[in-house]
């Protein structure tokens, strides 16, 4: 009977460490969003920007803001309404590029 308890604790600790490691990067991602006008935009959130191979026209201010709001929706769901500031969740670095049609 004493044998399962010592084996259980290291397994629980390993699962907890893996969960923390996986959750540590949930604030950094790349996402494609579609704007109201139908333009598809790729946004890098808390990641180095990756410019498209084929240069596209620059986003105007309204398009850029719309893309950033859509791209950070996941962060708002993860951080909740009372998150500390600044963190990668509440003050993300965002870079968006329009994709070719």
Walkthrough of the structure:
The chain has 101 residues and is an alpha+beta fold. The protein has one domain (27-98). It has 3 helices and 3 strands. The chain has a 3-stranded antiparallel sheet, covered by helices on one side. A hairpin with a 5-residue loop joins strand 1 (29-34) and strand 2 (40-45). It is globular.
Number of domains: 1
Distance between the termini: 65 Å
- The percentage of residues in β strands lies in 15-25%
Name the helicity range. Answer: 25-40%
What is the succession of H and E elements?
A: HEEHHE
List the helices and strands and how they pair.
Blueprint: H1 4-23, E1 29-34, E2 40-45, H2 61-71, H3 73-79, E3 94-98
Antiparallel strand pairs: 1-2, 2-3
What attributes characterize this protein structure?
single chain; 101 residues; alpha+beta; three-stranded antiparallel β-sheet; 3 helices; 3 strands; 38% helix; 17% strand; globular
Give a short overview.
The protein has 101 residues and is of the alpha+beta class. The protein is built from three helices and three strands, in the order H-E-E-H-H-E.
């Amino acid at each position: 009977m004493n044998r399962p308890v010592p084996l259980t604790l290291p397994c629980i600790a390993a699962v907890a460490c893996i969960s923390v490691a996986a959750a540590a990067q949930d604030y950094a991602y790349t996402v494609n969003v579609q704007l109201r006008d139908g333009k598809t935009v790729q946004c890098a959130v808390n990641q180095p920007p990756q410019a498209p191979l084929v240069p596209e026209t620059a986003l105007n201010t309204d398009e850029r803001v719309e893309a950033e709001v859509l791209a950070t929706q996941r962060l708002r769901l993860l951080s909740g309404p009372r998150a500390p500031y600044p963190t990668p969740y509440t003050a993300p670095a965002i870079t968006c590029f329009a994709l070719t049609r």
